[in-house]
Amino acid sequence: MGRRRKGREIALQILYEIDSGPGLKNNCTMEQRIIEHLNYFNVSGAERDLAYLLSNGVCQNLQSIDHKIDIATENWTLNRLTSIDRNIIRLAVYEMVFLDDVSFKTTINEAIEIAKRFGTEQSGKFVNGVLDRIHRLSSELKERDGTDMELRDPM
Predict the structure, then answer these.
(1) How far apart are CA 38 and CA 40, in angstroms?
(2) Among 151, 136, 35, residue whose Cα is nearest residue 90
(3) Alpha carbon distance 41, 30 (integer Å)
(4) What is the DSSP annotation of 36-99?
(5) pTM of the model
């Protein structure tokens, strides 16, 4: 398994833990909770750096990421998604929107593989469909208006 995949998987596990309950300590800031999780996984180097970047990036941009997912999942609410699927999609959306060093195809393929490993039998297909829709909607808006898919909640 490559370093980037390992970093993504650790980020998923961090987000899953935070999403599933109060985390390791109720009174910690989000960054402290992420660092505690990283220490728990006992990783270093590139895996730790990527896991931190992704999990912290998702936490810092959660509202806009979730809004984008809401747009792409017309008949679903975020609460109806399994925590694993929800957080895999969040990680991939963060990568596609905020990071320039990985192509959207690579991001989607990685998300599908992680979904197959950690999710249900249907997770890979579901994650693929949502991420493909997000990418298509963003591309259509960019072509039409020269802007990216709206990330902020409408006022």
Answers:
(1) 5
(2) 151
(3) 17
(4) HHHHHHT--HHHHHHHHHHHHHHHHTHHHHHHHHHHH-TT--GGGS-HHHHHHHHHHHHHHHH-
(5) 0.86
Q: For the packed helices 45-60 and 62-72, what is the interaxial angle rounded to 10 degrees? A: 80
- Are 10 and 38 contacting, i.e. CB atoms less than 8 angstroms apart? yes
Q: How many other CB atoms are there within 10 angstroms of residue 10's CB atom? A: 22
- Identify the burial level of 25 via C-beta atoms within 10 angstroms of its C-beta, where 0-12 means exposed, 13-18 middle and 19 or more buried: exposed
Whether the Cβ atoms of residue 54 and residue 91 lie closer than 8 Å to each other: yes
Give the residue from 26, 14, 25 showing the smallest Cα distance to 94. 14
User: Domain 61-155 classified CATH 1.10.940.10?
Assistant: yes
Reported as a single tens digit per residue, the pLDDT across 54-77 is 999 999 999 989 989 998 887 888
